[in-house]
Amino acid sequence: MKKGFYLLVKEMIRKSDIVLEVLDARMPELTRIRDIESYAKSVGRPLIIVVNKSDIISRAALEKIREGYSGLEACIVSSKKPHNIRELLIRIKQKSSRQKIRVAVIGYPNTGKSSLINRLSAHGKAKTGTESGTTKGMQLISGKGNLMLFDSPGIVPFQDRDSIRLGLVAGVSPEKLKDADIVAMELIRIFKNSNPGAMEKAYGVDASLDPYDILLEIGKNMKFLRKKAEIDERRTAVHILTDWHKGKIRL
Ligand SMILES: Nc1nc2c(ncn2[C@@H]2O[C@H](COP(=O)(O)OP(=O)(O)OP(=O)(O)O)[C@@H](O)[C@H]2O)c(=O)[nH]1
Ligand SMILES: [Mg+2]
Q1: What pLDDT, on a 0 to 100 scale, did the predictor assign at position 233?
Q2: Which of 117, 122, 125, 152 has the most other CB atoms within 10 Å of its CB?
């Protein structure tokens, strides 16, 4: 990300009447950008936290988010299903009395900003994609009713650029990760704690093993082998992370 990008996002926020911060429901706290929340507050722009992808989390996880975000201005939606989009639209309109409401849509890469914009717009013009970095520049799109929507490329806060976090939240595509195996093991650890059954079901592995052994077992089951029948750990890791980003394995 270019250094000037933050400045551009800030300018976009100043030009807007309201800010939507889009989070990934699978990792809402990891995808929050506190700097942007503080900035919006400092320039007096109301901010709604939009927890997106609610269709791919369990009821229990959904309930946890509901409780955790009850004190905040937050709306839990799915841009895919779609779900709760109308409620979000009503909330936006309550926040501004302007004729045309300009809405800045910001967030981590791949959280579904463009997909959400397409739900909020009449013709769905924003480009979306499974790879992070789909949206390249700022784009102004006319929305339903009296909305004007600013789409933007995903923001990765400078202090968050460690590869594990980036890999988990799809800030970087799995193929481009230097240490895909480490990120995949972190993901396996999360599954072990929260939903071991999902991993057992998806890959036919014993979730009571150590994360590294689970990774190897998955590689073996997938027949991801290198010469001398060695398991290709990287290929296995990329495969697991891709499944995760595409929502094929769910917490
Ligand atoms: N299951 C599910 N998938 C979603 C949802 N919203 C978006 N996605 C998927 O998430 C991926 C990223 O969506 P985009 O809308 O391109 O995300 P973005 O935040 O604009 O991404 P960048 O422009 O790369 O920062 C795509 O594969 C979408 O289909 C949702 O509510 N549920
Ligand atoms: Mg986008």
Answers
A1: 94
A2: 117
Q: Are residues 137 and 16 in the same domain?
A: yes
Spatial neighbors of 221 by CB under 8 A, at least 6 apart, are: 203, 204, 205
As a whole-number percent, the residues of the chain with pLDDT over 70 amount to 96
Q: How far is the CA of 151 from the centre of ligand 2 (A)?
A: 7
Is 110 inside any structural domain? Answer: yes
| Ligand nearest, relative to CA of residue 56 | 1
Q: Which two tokens stand for residue 109?
A: 């890469």
- pLDDT (tens digit per residue) in 196-228: 999 999 999 999 999 999 999 999 999 999 988
Question: Considering the domain boundaries, does residue 50 fall inside one?
Answer: yes
Q: How far apart are CA 4 and CA 114, in angstroms?
A: 21
Structural domain includes residue 227: yes
**Mean pLDDT (whole number) for 99-115:** 94
Ligand 1 site, residue 171, Cβ cutoff 6 A: no
Give the Cα separation of 33 and 99 in Å (integer).
Answer: 29
Q: Do 111 and 38 fall within a single domain? A: yes
How far lies 180's CA from each of 115, 172, 187, in Å? 27, 10, 10
| 167 belongs to a structural domain | no
Query: Is the minimum distance from the CB of 113 to ligand 1 under 6 angstroms?
Result: yes
**Total tally of structural domains belonging to the chain:** 2
